[in-house]
Amino acid sequence: MDLLTLTKVNKAFGSQQVLKGLDLAVPQGAIYGFVGENGAGKTTTMRLILGLEPLDSGTITFAGQPVRFGQTQGIGYLPDVPAYYGDLSAREYLTLCGRLTHTPHLHERVGEMLHLVGLPDTRRRVHGFSRGMKQRLGIASALLDRPAMLLCDEPTSALDPAGRREFLALLASVHNETTILLSTHILSDVERICDYVGILHAGKLQVQGPLQALLAAHTQPATCFTFGTETEAQTAATLLGAVAKADQVTVTADARAALTQLLAQHLMPTAFNPIKASLEQLFMEVIA
Amino acid sequence: MRGYALILQNELILAWRRYRLVVLALVFLLFGIEAPLVAKLTPALLKSIGQGMTITLPEPTSVMSWQQYYKNMTQIGLFVLAIVASGTVSRELNEGTLVILVAKGLRRNAVIMAKYTMALLQWVVALLLAFGVTYAYTAYYFPDELSPHPWLALWPLLWFGVLWLAIIILGSTLSKSGFTGFLLGAGVYLGLTLLNMFKAVHRFNPVSLTNDNLALLTGTKTFWSLAPAYAVTLAGAVACLALAMLVLKKRRL
Amino acid sequence: MTDFELIKEYLPFLIPAVLIELALAITGVISVLRHPHYRFGNRILWLLLVIFVQPFGPLLYFFAGREVE
After folding, report:
1. Torsion of CA B26, B31, B35, B41, to 10 degrees
2. For an engineered disulfide with A194, which of A190, A261, B19, B247 has Cβ 3.0 to 4.6 Å away?
3. Which domain does A162 fall in, by range?
4. Which residues of chain B neighbour A77 with C-beta distances below 8 Å?
């Protein structure tokens, strides 16, 4: 069952049409990777889902209810650059959030969330927090009132590799509590934790579905041959009807047939590797 | 208005931690001391300037002290409050601090009303602090019968703050700059002052509430002589706040 | 009237006024020194303002110049 659906959503800012008939569906329980280039409209889509921006046309339905501008549905939100009141402590900020949503047993719940995201429950003020700590505080505030869905906007792009790994592990660990929609342009993040993916390009979702099924359907198995010299690689490329890159030639045809063909011409590759279908391949194909 | 009380409480905590409440209180205490001091000093200063000449100098009176108080409050105090309230909404919009809270159900209207209440609270407390100090010094140094209605005289000025701060909040909502509120307030003040050159407008003009304090103090004017101006002030404040809410609804957080 | 008597006469005004200005200057200086970033201006400017432009320097600093982040 789809928890969130967007149908024919249009949104323009001035003369710039950002979304042109966007259709998107997030199944219950998914970690949905919402992929697109910078400026493709990922943040705008999220703000529409949250009721922070008015729709031009189309419909958004969350848990069976239509989403309207100015009305919130209890969706947790982690903005790309979360901003807090620097003079509050993490506990004070979470308490403010919790009182807004009338979260029961707030004192215990705040302690629980601070523990979950690994922030100290001290009087230290937020203005001294690192970016990673601010992201984690954002997750704590977003999940505080146990929302059915969590939207994360480019949550890892400001983090260093270690912080990124930590953050993705945190997301994966809360996955059993909530459905997650994660926007990003970092494809390896999607491959690491997402089970669904949608690619936004030119104001529309070009493709969406379960990650593995999409990869299988849209990408062909390929093999990469490496040769001793670049001249050899050139000859091999001409023979196989492919393009050589330095000493490597990649072919999408049957590897066994290609190898037989090469050996018949006494072209001996020094290595050959099957290439796993990757999201990057799919992405490049879709936005081309 | 979901979140009004929470945001107001948060405003108070932040203002306290940013030392703003303390600084504001100290500044207005200083204004309160300055008024009777100036009243007491003026004859002495005139004497030192006019040495050798025989001029009859008026003894300082309670009216001179209150005159200086209202001068301070209308020429400086109002603009200090404009600085205080001018960045209040624009800063939130600049920094994006409202995004998470609005996504959690905070109403934008509640933000405007909480900010306005906070500004009004600061105005009332600041004005009363200075008033208390001036009152005490004046009663001690100038115990004359010339100022029978000190409390009554304060009300119009307090009431003018209702409109003044609504204008500043509107300005703060209109733009990302922290000074737009201040400039809008100053512009409106100038406009209303010019309008007061027409005698017919005087009774209706909110700015009269900042001019007639001495007349009320000494009893040459009655409190209700400005009744139309009170009404216009209130109506103007409501209009400014409604407009501010409308603007914030359209603005990207 | 001697100068001393003159000053004595004004002490009830001067003592609280000086104390308040001192308090404003000290809170201002401490805060300016503890925060390296400002909305505008630099440290020297703010130090001069909070110490010498009383009481508007501290007022402007705490309401418009101070940056938390």
Report:
1. 80
2. A190
3. 2-208
4. 99-100, 103
